[in-house]
Design brief:
- The chain is mainly β.
- It is built from 1 helix and 5 strands.
- A 3-stranded antiparallel sheet has the order 3-4-5.
- A hairpin with a 4-residue loop joins strand 4 and strand 5.
- It is globular and about 55 Å long.
- The two termini are about 30 Å apart.
């Protein structure tokens, strides 16, 4: 718990594996602060992503959310995909989500990968 009597306490930096563009001509980018205490910086590539992060933080069974989470796969981890967020639940289950224009989320487990 930060002591605010010592002055301004800044949020922790983003834990993203990939940084998003600071601005875009064609879509919005979102930077927010979420979490307890001073919180931590979160980034998203759309308002939909920011809304999804907020919904995940509101769930009672969610322990942690990390945005822009890298996932390596293939025989020698030569392929990679960056998911919009990695959600860790209180049960220990880890779910990587991606949001597309179709407002879908899917689990890496569907493809036989356990993260």
């Amino acid at each position: 718990m930060p002591s605010f009597s010592e002055g301004i306490v800044l949020p922790a930096p983003s834990r993203a594996d990939r940084k998003i563009q600071n601005l875009s001509k064609w879509h919005c980018t979102v930077h927010t602060v979420r979490g307890s205490g001073a919180g931590s910086r979160m980034q998203g590539e759309s308002k939909l992503e920011a809304d999804h992060q907020a919904l995940q933080y509101a769930q009672p069974d969610v322990e942690d959310v990390v945005e822009q989470a890298l996932f390596n796969f293939g025989w020698r981890d030569e392929k990679r995909h960056v998911f919009d967020m990695l959600v860790t639940k209180t049960s220990g289950e880890r779910v990587k989500n991606t949001d597309a224009c179709s407002v879908t989320s899917w689990r890496a487990v569907v493809f036989g990968f356990y993260v």
